[in-house]
């Protein structure tokens, strides 16, 4: 097991693919043989971003996306064929980067976290840990994000305290046990394929 505590000052900023806003990049991975870290070489990315006005989402062919509101409420994602309801915070929605999506903000601006992955390169999961308790973590990369105030977790018996917006990046070679001790956290999990 390898752990790295990432703090907000470690995060970088980058523009949305369509230029309509800015991501706060928390963690990610790109193909090792790529000349540049860009959308075409992306394997996975964990980021937060404000959505302050209704508008279109970026077109991201080949990318699977998970999203969750962590601040504010009332977000709905609308595509020509369906709606994704994120009106309540800490609800995860899954959609593909090819979908034409426009946001509706029913109660003002929101802050969301996104976990994105190249289809076929990784499997991803995004869940809110709201109640103290344990859960099994598979081998892979896990990101525990203190999205809403401070929190404490226990990982295989070792305790970690995270301040608001800190992220504990955990690399696991084998199954492990994670427990939320106090507070609220968002857990992003990535398992590379192949």
UniProtKB/TrEMBL annotation:
Protein name listed in UniProt: HutD-family protein
PANTHER family: PROTEIN VES
InterPro entries associated with the record: RmlC-like_jellyroll, RmlC_Cupin_sf, Uncharacterised_HutD/Ves
Top-level taxon: Bacteria
Native source species: Bradyrhizobium frederickii
């Amino acid at each position: 097991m390898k752990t790295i505590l990432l703090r907000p000052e470690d995060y970088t900023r980058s523009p949305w693919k369509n230029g309509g806003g800015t991501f706060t990049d928390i963690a990610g991975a790109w193909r090792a043989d790529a000349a540049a870290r860009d959308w075409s070489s992306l394997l996975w990315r964990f980021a937060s971003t404000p959505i302050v006005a209704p508008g279109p989402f970026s077109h991201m062919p080949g990318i699977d996306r998970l999203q969750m509101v962590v601040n504010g409420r009332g977000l709905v994602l609308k595509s020509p064929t369906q709606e994704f309801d994120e009106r309540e915070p800490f609800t995860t929605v899954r959609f593909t980067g090819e979908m034409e999506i426009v946001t509706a903000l029913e109660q003002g601006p929101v802050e969301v976290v996104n976990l994105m992955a190249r289809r076929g390169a990784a499997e991803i999961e995004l869940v809110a840990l709201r109640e103290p308790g344990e859960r099994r973590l598979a081998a892979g990369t896990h990101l525990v994000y203190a999205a809403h105030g401070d929190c404490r977790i226990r990982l295989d018996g070792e305790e970690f305290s995270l301040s608001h917006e800190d992220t504990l990046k955990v690399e696991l070679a084998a199954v492990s046990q994670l427990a939320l001790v106090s507070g609220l956290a968002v857990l992003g999990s990535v398992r590379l394929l192949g």
